[in-house]
Amino acid sequence: MQPQTQNAFRALADPTRRDIVQMLAAQDMTIAQLTERFDMTRAAVKKHLTVLSDGGLITVETRGRERINRLEPQGMAPVLDWFSYFDRFWDDRLSKLKEAIERKDT
Known about the structure:
Order of helices and strands: HHEHHEEH
Strand content: 5-15%
Largest sheet: 3 strands, antiparallel
């Protein structure tokens, strides 16, 4: 597994980070805005944002004194690629099973 894929999975492994990803899918937010939605310190939210950034799932833009966190949809590509492999794998296996059952029934 590629390091970027590993970092993305690591980022998504935590429920708080998954919640942050969902919030950022709806709108860009500052650390302060995100902190208001969780029962944790600003420093704890910042740590979660760092892991999400390292995973390529968010980007941070500096506007004056604010740091705006934005979902990076392309960051999900390695995760989706990994899952799509198994989706194709099971589609193939189930198709072969169906064919075997149909041959046996005739």
